[in-house]
Amino acid sequence: MSDLLEGALQALRLVFGLDPELIEISLRSLRVTLTALLVACMIALPLGAYLAVRRFRLRRFVIAVLNALMGLPPVVVGLIVYVFLSRSGPFGVFGLLFTPTAMIIAQVVIIVPLIASIAHQALRELWSDYHDLLISMNASQGQRIRALLWDGRRALLTAALAGFGRGIGEVGAIMVVGGNIDHHTRVLTTAIALETGKGDFALALALGFILIAIAIGVNLAIHVLSGTEREGRW
Fold this sequence. Notes:
- There is one protein chain.
- The protein is an all-alpha fold.
- 77% of the residues lie in helices and 0% in strands.
- It contains ten helices and no strands.
- It has helices spanning 2-16, 20-53, 59-69, 74-85, 100-136, 141-151, 153-168, 172-178, 188-198, 201-226.
- The longest helix has 37 residues, at 100-136.
């Protein structure tokens, strides 16, 4: 018990003392996840709006696939990305394996289905309210999508924050394609796994405190931006 308490105290000293290694790992983790989130939103948000507006033969199938991909094991995503980026893979010539770029690609694959699915559900309800108005205005499909994206921006921001929360806590796929290389691809989750295995509980706990703080901050941001506390639904 005393060892755990001492480890927790050392972890707090590392956090509040702004330990350089701790800061480096945290910033790298944020940089990777925020970049992946930006790319994923550029893909997922228009896709969610398109599925809400457009009716086509395979629409239900595409929606079902998106929902199914939300439960895809991250380690499987890491394996697929590894195969594509390995030297014998189709994109091996670019030398992206075991780089932050490979980690970003893996996170994009993981969070795009989540963001697109949440965005589609939110924009589908908005489209039912806007359908008659936009049809009567003879708006093009692109104009309809842009209108939904703008007026549904609060719900879409919530979807993006949910994607960020999923990405920042990812470890399996990141470990496979990033390799957990010190000063290069080591991020919060992989560093926690490594330091725990080494028995360095102080650094592992410090990294864990930062990860928990980020997760709590994201969830609070979701509640604030969705307005649940103002509507009495907290």
